[in-house]
Amino acid sequence: SVDSGVIAVSRRQGPVGVRSPEQDSWEPARRGLELQRGWRVDVPEGASAEVSLPGRIRLGVRPNTTVRVVGGSEDRRGLGSIAAIGLERGTVWARAPGGAGAKLTVTTAALTGDLVAGHAVFAVEEGGATRVSNRSAQAVRLRGSGKGKTVVVAAGMGAVVLPGKAPTTPVPLPAAPRWQPGPELFLAIDGVATIRRPFTATAGAAG
User: Fold this and answer.
1) Could you tell me which residues come within 8 angstroms of residue 23 by beta carbon, excluding any fewer than 6 positions away?
2) What burial class does residue 99 get, using C-beta atoms within 10 Å of its C-beta: 0-12 exposed, 13-18 middle, 19+ buried?
3) Reported confidence tier of residue 70, pLDDT bands at 50, 70, 90
4) Portion of the chain with pLDDT greater than 70, in percent
5) What is the pLDDT of residue 39?
6) Which pLDDT score, from 0 to 100, does residue 75 have?
7) Cα 49 to the chain's mean position, in Å?
8) Among 13-17, 148-152, 192-196, where is mean pLDDT lowest?
């Protein structure tokens, strides 16, 4: 297991790369590798990764995504922790445990978002817009990179932020896809399990 007070690669599947600020090329990520400020994690097509952060926060990094470690610390008195990640491209999901006083800040070219207790998805689209889906978090607070007010996105809601603009008014998220009855395929590689099963797509469903 990975120490809850550090930032580290907790899971990886496929050719995930890491790079420190001093490196010019990517090197293979390994499970348990501690990440320092300024380090990047790159997940190409067909791969995936998970990064553990202080306060037992988990960050899932989806394919075609690059993230940068901005910082992280844990209060040794047990009063909480804070972690900050830069999302340069692609999509991440984040889970923060309730009651632990943990907060995650995600920054993109368009926004700064704060997540406390729950599950949310951040996705950078072509053109730099960032789409935020609050799946179950207490609240996600968004601030645009330009001037503007802070927008609170409640659970079950989503918002979009364009570079230099204020966040849009949050709207309800579409329903998630529904599983269909049928055969299942269970596959485990390097400690990561995958279940394959048909589902009925829902138009506009968010991650």
Assistant:
1) none
2) exposed
3) very high
4) 75
5) 96
6) 47
7) 10
8) 192-196
Task: Specify the DSSP class assigned to residue 177.
Answer: P
The type of residue at 119 is H
Residue 96 in contact with residue 112, Cβ under 8 Å?
Answer: no
The whole-number pLDDT of residue 103 equals 86
130 alpha carbon, distance to own chain's centre: 12
Residue 73's pLDDT band, with cuts at 50, 70 and 90, is: low
Q: Closest Cα to residue 169, out of 198, 189, 149? A: 149
Residue 144 Cα distances to 12, 106, 163, 193, angstroms? 31, 12, 7, 37
- As given in the structure block, the two tokens for residue 60 are 């899932």
Burial pattern 26-57, b for ≥16 Cβ within 10 A else e, equals eeebebebebeeebbbbbeeebbbbbbbbbbb
Phi, psi at 29, each rounded to 5°: -80, 145
Contact 39, 27 (CB under 8 A): no
Pairing state between β 27-28 and 57-61: unpaired
